[in-house]
Amino acid sequence: MKQSVQFLKAKKSHYVFILILLALSLPVRAIPAELLVFYPEVRKPYTKIYQDIITGIRNANPNNTVAIPIRAEENYETFISAVKTNKPDSIVALGSGALEIALQIAPDVPIVAGAISRSSSTTRGISMIVDPAVVINKLLLLDNNINHIHVVTDSSNKQDQLRAAIDYAQSVNISFTVHEAKTIKAAASEYRNLLKNLGTHDAIWLMRDKALNDTSLLSLILETAWDRKIKVFSSNPTHVKRGALFSIYPNNTALGASLARLANDTDSQTNAKFELKLLKDIYIAGNERTLRHLGLTQANDTHQVLDNIL
Q1: Which pLDDT belongs to residue 23?
Q2: What pTM was computed for the model?
Q3: Which of 138, 132, 174 shows the shortest CA–CA distance to 296?
Q4: Core vs surface per residue 228-259: b (16+ CB within 10 A) or e
Q5: Are 255 and 103 in contact (CB under 8 A)?
Q6: CATH topology classification for 130-250+283-309
Q7: Model confidence at 273, in pLDDT bands (50, 70, 90)?
Q8: CATH number for region 35-116
Q9: Checking phi first, is residue 198 left (phi over 0); if not, alpha (psi -120 to 50) or beta?
Q10: How many Å apart are CA 300 and CA 293, to the nearest integer?
Q11: What DSSP designation does 31 have?
Q12: What is the rounded average pLDDT of the residues 51-69?
């Protein structure tokens, strides 16, 4: 009997030893990180942007996310206290103001930035600038006969996006041409010359640009494109209602989930490479009348490509 007891004790110790080895072999960050989110308190309707991003973060990181609004009247002590109280593994900073605060009060905590277009600091995160590869791929799924994409814009603040667009277009064997226009007058001239020479295998990407705030110019582009069956797609969600083939806009909930995954990524915490990734989480809204006019309603992937048809 005594031997049986000793055997059972030895067996139990053996199992405990195995369990300890298994525990040690698991990744250190096997469970989601404790995330602290700083976000600006803004007026409606802009509050929904941050609410949706935070919802996405919480969906991807349940029960381990604390969101702290940044109010104009609060001082840094409030945020320092939040860091000390929550002891986060990572901070997600939404907006440039939140990022600036996070960098100052928690230099030793990994920070992931979101809801910004660019940053002068060395930052890991996801930009609000859309990844052209995603957009071009969606266009080609709708119409694989496109062989040339044109953009008329002031390129001075779009260098990264335009470079990425040119590189991706080359990789799928289509041309991508940037027509430089620093003023509304120059843009109007470029569009008029361009629209005279384009055909059904061409597409125009209306990137956000001050020239497109001119409603008469926008009408000229869309009406001429309609007559010549040129595909026009836009980075402005309002343009799809005016007749653009489709418009793109951020999927903020999915962006939040991507930010949470980035913050929870073990490798990202130890990797010395810091960068703002281009935004891949987007919605595509299509114009049904324009789709029919261009003969694209029967495309096999139309309803898979478009998240919404107006």
Answers
A1: 42
A2: 0.86
A3: 138
A4: eebbbbbbbbebbebbbbbbbbbbbbbbbbbb
A5: no
A6: Rossmann fold (3.40.50)
A7: low
A8: 3.40.50.510
A9: beta
A10: 17
A11: S
A12: 94
